[in-house]
Amino acid sequence: MNTSNGQSHPEYRHLLGIEGMTATEITALLDLGDRYLQHYRDDAQIPKVLKDRTQINLFFEDSTRTRTSFELAGKRLGLNVINMSVASSSIKKGETLIDTAMTLNAMRPSALVVRHNASGAAALLSQKVSCSVINAGDGSHEHPTQALLDALTIRRRKGRIEGLRVAICGDILHSRVARSNIHLLNTMGSRVRLVAPPTLMPPFIENLGVDVHHDMREGIKDVDIVMMLRLQKERMQGAFVPSTREYFRYYGLDADKLAHAKPDALIMHPGPMNRGVEIDTVIADDIDRSAIQEQVEAGVAIRMACLDALCTGSLENTA
Ligand code: NCD
What we know:
Layout: H1 10-13, H2 23-41, E1 54-59, H3 65-76, E2 80-85, H4 97-105, E3 111-116, H5 121-126, E4 132-138, H6 144-158, E5 165-169, H7 176-187, E6 191-195, E7 211-213, H8 216-219, E8 225-228, H9 244-251, H10 255-258, E9 266-268, H11 281-284, H12 292-312
Parallel strand pairs: 1-2, 1-3, 3-4, 5-6, 5-8, 6-7, 8-9
The structure holds N-carbamoyl-L-aspartate (NCD).
């Protein structure tokens, strides 16, 4: 099936968010990601299943890990990867997002990887182009590949996702990572707790089937996974916390608070980390407890899985 000519069902052509995905579809992507990760660790030959196709990365927001790992993922699969630098593109001359996407689409790429500060930007583009669109983060809405790489990391470390207690802590209000993880973890049968000060907790979020905590020690009591989030100052207008020092005191992950989680609780963070703001530096670097570097490694593998599944149409077969 050739996705670049639009034959594939739109539902399986794009990855716009985790919301609405089934456990079977998520598991298929995790299984494929797991295979790619193992291949890579074994130094095995990776088949160039997308050889001579084109992937365009269109990033309107800053990124280190996500953009680099999408680039590496595409190259490992044989794709020609083009990074559009928004700073030197016609967007600076006033071209709209849709005009830019239509122009790129006319060059017949197989995949367009988009990061934008507006929620819904990737979904909007997907209606205008004939290639696969992958959402690499849209405002505070979703960041589906981050949730998938987090799930792969959890599954490899804990052997399962179902039945685990997971606390997501910090700036939930502005976090697309939190939203995608809530959808994924709920779908896969984890029990999700959110921990944040009232100013950083979205109203009515408990309607998503999560427990809400404002006290960090209570929130992480007996959890299997502690997932920390960055204070997203670039999305804040005004002061959401009195000071970063006070924030660390009440909501920063340190040894004292971590002692309330299970003794083998895994520490995660999507990066970039603000050491001493949301996480103590010693804890972040504790190789026995912290899975932060493994998350980065899983990121390349999961993005290979997503590019492969969407561009070859294999996800459709899992439905
Ligand atoms: C996250 C993002 O961009 O939403 N980072 C990432 O993709 N690794 C989280 C963040 O920026 O804090």
